[in-house]
Amino acid sequence: MDYNAKLDEALKRLHDEGRYRTFIDIEREKGNYPHATWRRPDGSEQPITVWCGNDYLGMGQHPVVLDAMHEALDATGAGSGGTRNISGTTVYHKRLEAEIADLHGKESALLFTSAYIANDATLSTLPKLFPGLIIYSDELNHASMIEGVRRNGGAKRIFRHNDVEHLRELLAADDPAAPKLIAFESVYSMDGDFGPIEAICDLADEFGALTYIDEVHAVGMYGPRGGGVTERDRLAHRIDIINGTLAKAYGVMGGYIAASFKLCDAIRSYAPGFIFTTSLPPTVAAGAAASVRHLKTDQARRDLHQQQAKTLKLRLKGLGLPIIDHGSHIVPVIVGDPVHTKKLSDMLLEGYGIYVQPINFPTVPRGTERLRFTPSPVHGPEEMDKLIRAMDQLWSHCALNRAELAG
User: Of 29, 35, 34, nearest to 375 (Cα)?
Assistant: First the structure.
């Protein structure tokens, strides 16, 4: 076996399809997000504006968060020193879990190193707790949810995206006595559409199923305290397990589940992904707790974030660009070709200092390749004007289709 030749073949396929992913070496500027510096491959530097970051609210630069992290660093040092079971549980981890449980109105919360691990570890462990469990999973769920469901060794059913009637058919076809769990999301990050939470909760009640919702693209940004779409729609009490992240709206790192004390205790005790992973550094936990605490009362930041998204979508529509608008903060512009998407991304970066990463298959279906913009409260009018002018010019330069504009 020529292993290097096989690696060359695998990488060539990605290049030929326009799907090869390139890391952009950037340095964020403290207190100046979304501005950053791009370190070019030739060693030169260029100032850029980040338009595709997941630090949705700019909390990664907020003084409240930075002060908490500095304080924890000075008090405890760098790392946690072990897994949660072996010396890695600190007062900072416990405070953060208490903040998260309070945020979602749950008895308990369990902290993981990422929301990916939280999804994977939890969903792969649940069949150990409920033998014979059948998991019903939306076809567009996050890769971490798919992986957790795939690895758990139990039965699974995939329902068409947001198709409540298809879900009902699947539930009705299975043994009424079998334990069941419905796994879905509140905001789907590639199209920005919302899951039918209330309708799914109604089905769960009817068929005796547990509910598991991924709120990673909603926590901090929706609801009167940032508890997500489930809080906004007053449905959190009907969800058994809420998954969230601390790396997007909260601007730090980590993931979690919030649920009953017994369920969190069982996952803590049975999930290898939790048991054998070194816990987050206390500095990170302290910063995340400060961010969660702050956003419980900073409604003005949430309102501005939503207004920024509405403004950007309105202006892109005014250019006739094919955007998807489901009313969330996600702003996808469909290009429809991986090579063109990468070319647009490169031209925006090199010619305009605008950084937006191309989104290609398998993250999205072939033919729906896109640029995905994430406006934040700290993107100013000048940055948005510059983006609109650049998109207008490059769309014409690349001779891409525009929608018919109303007269």
Answer: 34
DSSP 43: S
Three-state DSSP class for 58?
Answer: coil
With the C-alpha atoms ordered 326, 332, 333, 337, is the resulting torsion angle positive or negative?
negative
Q: What is the 3-state secondary structure (H, E, C) of 235-256?
A: CHHHCCEEEEECCCCCCCCCEE
Give dist(CA 321, CA 303) in Å, integer: 25
- Say yes or no to pLDDT of 407 above 70: no
Residue % of the chain over a pLDDT of 70: 99
| 278, two tokens | 């070194």
Q: pLDDT tens, 81-97? A: 999 999 999 999 999 99
Q: Decide the pairing of beta strands 255-259 and 108-112.
A: antiparallel
pLDDT, position 267: 98
Residue 54's nearest CA partner among 241, 291, 229, 218 is 218
Residues 267 and 251: their CA atoms lie apart, in Å, by 26
Which positions are annotated as active-site residues? Answer: 248
* Distance from C-alpha of 56 to C-alpha of 52, rounded to nearest angstrom: 9
CB 159 within 8 A of CB 136: yes
Integer angstrom CA distances of residue 245 from 16, 170, 216, 227, 340: 34, 30, 5, 11, 32
Alpha-carbon span 326 to 315, nearest angstrom: 16
Indicate the pLDDT class of residue 406, thresholds 50, 70 and 90: very low
